[in-house]
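Supplementary Methods S3. Complex input for the zinc ion-bound model.
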Amino acid sequence: MIKIPGEDDLPSGAHRNLLTNLHDLYRRAGFPGIKSISNASTRLNDNCDIISHQGVSNTLSGKSIPRWSKLESLVIVLASLDVTRPEPRKVAQEFQSLWINLVAPPTTNNDTTEPPRRILTNQHAQPSPIAVTAPTFKASRGISTRIRRDLQLEAGGKCSVPNCGSETIELSHITRISHGGANKFGNLICLCPNHHAWFDRGRFSEQEIRLLKARFAWNQRRYSDVEIMWLGVFSKRGGTHFVHPSSDRASLHSLEADGYIELTDSGLDDSKDSMDTWRLTDMGTRLAAVWSDSGAPPSNIR
Ligand SMILES: [Zn+2]
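Predicted complex, serialized as structure tokens:
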């Protein structure tokens, strides 16, 4: 069992705050062994990373601050062992805020400021050529390598705006973090610095950028037939919740990993008839709204 370091070794602040919460979770999980935590992380689905037993040990003892993908796996493993059985993804979201606070503390600059203005207020920090890219880098810190890679592949390593062709790309949040947007594949898109600035200034709407994502997803067959069926249903009918057999949960994997749906109620048992209840997230609702415009055939339901 690993103990939380004393205040002398780890004074109060963002790191201690994160660690205190992590140790609460560790305690409620019954102090599982570090090797069994690491082993459990190898069995996680949902695009999760693997955390080594050394990584578990260094994180819990406060010796190092892990990358988000590692901390996420640790939190999900512990949450799944928690006696109160919370929803592991929800717990991970709370931890992500703590982690972001630690690695990228909020600055006094307002997040909604236009990029060029931000550069002007940044005179103390760096000469301007570096300052131009700094906000993007900072905003991208919590994004896993896998998501970055998927985003680059999605747009072919170029700006996502048709016919732009620029190979200088930045990751842009479609819904800003300050407006509740997440570091999920579904909320991110590759844009060149010009089109990124256009989007930030409102020359592209969120809906237009979502339509680009929907077209990519449809063209590249990112989603399973089952996922496409549900997107078609919501696109046509609206609504936010659906039930789906627990035994077929795997076929909803990509929509969940991309942040478009979340499990609100898992089926009661392992039987064949067990049903899960899913909810379309706000982002999922917006994707569904443009889905049939992306070229996907309208769904046949009446
Ligand atoms: Zn562009």
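The chain has a mean pLDDT of 85. The first strand starts at residue 170 and ends at 173.
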